[in-house]
């Protein structure tokens, strides 16, 4: 397996990058990173490289890396990933866009270091060696603020890059800012339609009026693009719990840049708060958290303030795109929060992969909601809020 994904030349490049040009690779191995499915859009592995440096002839060093690759052993999953082009998009982010954002940027780190980015494979520093890990599917207030700081730094790097370049990042790299989640010409739209079916089924089982949900879902397609009147930044686009890693000092790194967009920062904030924050925290501390984000954005941008949006603009952009955060949660929660054993069984079977991802998953979700009430309650909570929103569409500010 190692020779299919990682070559000896790859390990030499990584070793020399980390340990210096005189480093010698003694051996390496590549193994599955976890038994649990960490993501739908790639296979995850841990690369270990045994290295000897010239000035330490009798001492070996082990380098640990995190590798994302195409899942060659699951044909339905591989076909789905290739058709979606998510791997190509993330490869472009790390090879073309991140270097532009990080050039001369002095704010806090917001992503892992990427050693290799090529078709079919991405190799990163292994953040777990530095004490980073996931914090579960529901963040507490401390973790929410930690994530907000990382997002503010990411957005600040986008603002600073555009000030430095004198033009937008979409002009510098125009080929990669296409939408991948809310599109109707790819197989992902089948996933979307199945998610709508699930939301309607959950609402009806709760005795709620689901008649306006299909119309409300359509708003997402209009709200994820660039604004003509507000400051746009590169958005992560996929801020659910597994895509943020934390250490014990509450530093946060963002990972999985497969769905990045160019739009107002409020969209990332809405997605984060709906996917990861307790609903009570979001509802009672929303303005406070937006202010927390803005204060750190100002700090990280530093003197490059010619493109800095006002706090009022941040709040307005958030209100305009808040419904997209709710829509994303309604679509994600039934799958992302499902019991890991059930998810593993469904994703690793040729027979069930398509059914689970793009087929009719209403029975699977409703049955799981009955068996796992904490899971069911989170799904019900966000569906209920979305139903309420669907009857107030004329009161929601239109993205502009």
From TrEMBL:
<protein>
    <recommendedName>
        <fullName>CHK kinase-like domain-containing protein</fullName>
    </recommendedName>
</protein>
<feature type="domain" description="CHK kinase-like">
    <location>
        <begin position="122"/>
        <end position="303"/>
    </location>
</feature>
<dbReference type="InterPro" id="IPR015897">
    <property type="entry name" value="CHK_kinase-like"/>
</dbReference>
<dbReference type="InterPro" id="IPR004119">
    <property type="entry name" value="EcKL"/>
</dbReference>
<dbReference type="InterPro" id="IPR011009">
    <property type="entry name" value="Kinase-like_dom_sf"/>
</dbReference>
<dbReference type="Pfam" id="PF02958">
    <property type="entry name" value="EcKL"/>
</dbReference>
């Amino acid at each position: 397996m190692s020779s299919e994904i990682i070559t000896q030349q790859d390990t030499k490049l990584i070793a020399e990058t980390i340990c210096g040009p005189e480093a010698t690779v003694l051996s390496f191995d590549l193994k599955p990173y976890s038994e649990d499915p960490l993501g739908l859009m790639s296979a995850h592995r841990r690369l270990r490289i045994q290295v000897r440096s010239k000035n330490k002839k009798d001492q070996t060093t082990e380098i640990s890396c995190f590798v994302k690759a195409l899942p060659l052993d699951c044909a339905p999953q591989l076909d789905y990933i290739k058709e979606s082009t998510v791997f190509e998009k993330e490869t472009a982010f790390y090879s073309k866009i991140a270097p532009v954002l990080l050039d001369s940027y002095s704010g806090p780190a917001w992503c892992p270091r990427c050693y290799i980015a090529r078709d079919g494979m991405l190799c990163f520093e292994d953040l777990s060696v530095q004490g980073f890990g996931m914090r579960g599917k529901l963040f507490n207030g401390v973790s929410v603020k930690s994530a907000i700081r990382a997002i503010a730094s990411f957005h600040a790097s986008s603002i600073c890059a555009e000030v430095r370049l004198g033009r937008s990042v979409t002009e510098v790299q125009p080929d990669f800012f296409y939408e991948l989640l809310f599109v109707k010409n790819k197989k992902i739209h089948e996933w979307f339609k199945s998610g709508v079916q699930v939301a309607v089924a959950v609402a009806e089982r709760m005795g709620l009026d689901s008649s306006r949900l299909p119309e409300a879902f359509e708003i997402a397609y209009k709200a994820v693009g660039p604004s003509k009147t507000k400051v746009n930044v590169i958005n992560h686009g996929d801020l659910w719990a597994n895509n943020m890693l934390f250490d014990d000092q509450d530093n946060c790194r963002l990972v999985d840049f497969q769905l990045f967009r160019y739009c107002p920062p409020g969209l990332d904030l809405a997605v984060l708060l709906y996917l990861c924050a307790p609903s009570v925290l979001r509802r009672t501390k929303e303005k406070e958290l937006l202010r927390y984000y803005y204060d750190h954005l100002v700090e990280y941008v530093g003197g490059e303030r010619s493109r800095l949006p006002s706090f009022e603009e941040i709040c307005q952009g958030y209100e305009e795109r808040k419904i997209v955060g709710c829509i994303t949660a309604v679509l994600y929660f039934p799958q992302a929060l499902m019991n890991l054993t059930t998810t593993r069984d469904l994703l690793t079977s040729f027979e069930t992969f398509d059914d689970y991802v793009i087929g009719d998953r209403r029975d699977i979700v409703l049955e799981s909601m009955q068996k796992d009430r904490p899971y069911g309650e989170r799904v019900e909570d966000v569906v209920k809020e979305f139903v309420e929103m669907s009857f107030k569409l004329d009161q929601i500010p239109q993205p502009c």
